[in-house]
Amino acid sequence: MAHFICNGYSKIFGFSRGKNIGISLFLTLFTLLPLLIQAQGKKELNVLFMISDDLTATALSSYENGASHTPNIDKLASEGTRFTKAYCQYPVCGPSRASMMFGYYPNATTTYGYVSGREKVGPNRQSWAQLFKDNGYYTARVGKIFHMGSVDILKGRNGKDDPVSWTERFNSPAPEVFAKGEHELVQNNPFGLLTLPKDSLWNGGNQIHIVKTEENEIQTDAETANKVSELLRAHKNEPFFIAAGFFRPHVPFVAPKSSFDSYPHEQIVMPPKVDGDWDDIPEQGINYVNSVNGEMTVEQEKKAVAAYYASTSFLDDQVGKVLQTLKEEGLEKNTIVIFTSDHGYFLGEHRFWMKVGLMEESVRVPLIIKVPGQAPAVCYSFAELIDLYPTISELAGLQAPEAIQGKSLAPLIDNPKLEVRDFAFSVSQRNGRMGYLIRSSEWAYIQYGEQAEGGMELYDMNYDKGQYNNLALYPKYEEVVSEIQGLLQDKLAEVRTNDLGIEY
Fold it and tell me: CATH number for the domain including 434?
């Protein structure tokens, strides 16, 4: 718009060059000037998209956790719309991000691994960022947006990125588990005899390493925050879509020693351990990492939670840096800000750790959307990460592809009392069998296998928020199970009705 206005003024004043300036030209300019000023005030809405990795909603103080310290994210939540029932579509990094960025459910694209998602949608479908790029926006990725593994972070590699989505892309390499500082392995280290760093002990896999780094050590999220701030300053006069992919609190739990000060592990209160907790959970529902196969003592469990909170607090500091830059550069008034995570994380609930499972801690995510000029609000409607593509596109005045499968949450920004979904849908795969989640206001239903051949779980979320009492096999709940199974079959049919040309 600014370019158009500049050209418009040059044309007007170009006619004025010469010896004779007629009164008619003056009147024309006088008439057009208010329109030009009005047009100048209309600016495209920029997008600042911030996503964390492995961040469960309950790790934030704005989401129920009084033990955590996340003042910057909390402030953003108090200024924007905070969604209380936001869910990922797959509680693993690669498929979750592919679904979010391309707008198709994992069961539609059959994208279940550590890939970008481009492999299944083909070259002619736009990613979320690509839509903005194709509409004249500067688009930049800093850090992990599409899938990027721990070794990719360490070595500064692009991982499973989608290069056509971006005008520019930047990585944030850091020493990670090899950083200088205090090291401890609290998983599969029952006697505390193993020490780090050692190349033979770490290949980027998901193990709970804790690294309290020296204060001057490079941190990947600090590098990301600095680069995003630099890009905000450099591109503040043009429309932009800047994506900040923070890696924390993903393992290894790496943060400066000062970030650990608020979380002495001795004071950590662990979730309750219920006798026979696993007795009514199908085998596939026992999470792939747990305190039993991880050989974790209670002290090690507490150290893991403390380190997770410390990593989250450090992440919060970096979010604060970016938001401060946005404010200093006067960009708050015309920038949509989104903060979320690719999926949740178990922190000892049911003695489970990490992700993959379909219980609440693993699939529920924080989601905050701040739109200029909109009043702060809390929204209780179900939302899915797949909804971000059509939502932010609509808010920015762009037309998202009709074929994508998310629903726009834009009406909820205007009226947070509305509901756009009756339930959330998420899936996960383990040992070749799919698991499915239907999460309604009253029920959390998990089914393993399309015909429930691997078992079922049903939890009353009004009375059993911790999901300790599986009601699926009680005769009293047969009708509830049958009804939800019908919803699941309808949802799968809906997901598989698409333009992808894949046989299911």
Answer: 3.30.1120
Could you report how far apart the first and last alpha carbons of the chain are, in Å?
A: 46
Number of H helices, E strands in the chain: 14, 17
Q: CB of 126 within 8 A of CB of 415?
A: no
Do 410 and 486 lie in a common domain?
no
The domain boundary, picked from 426, 449, 471, lies at: 426
**What is the spatial distance between Cα 238 and Cα 45, in angstroms, rounded to a whole number?**
10
Whether residue 341 contacts residue 53, with contact meaning beta carbons closer than 8 Å, is answered with: yes
**What does the pLDDT read at residue 42?**
43
Phi, psi of 17 (to 5 degrees): -70, 130
pLDDT digits over 302-324, tens only?
A: 999 999 999 999 999 999 999 99
User: pTM (2 decimals)?
Assistant: 0.91
Range of the domain at 257: 46-426
Q: Using DSSP bridges, classify how beta strands 364-370 and 335-341 pair: parallel, antiparallel or unpaired.
A: antiparallel
pLDDT digits (tens, 9 = 90+) for 380-392: 999 999 999 999 9
Query: Based on the structure, what is the number of domains in the chain?
Result: 2
E strand or H helix at 5, and its extent?
A: helix 2-16
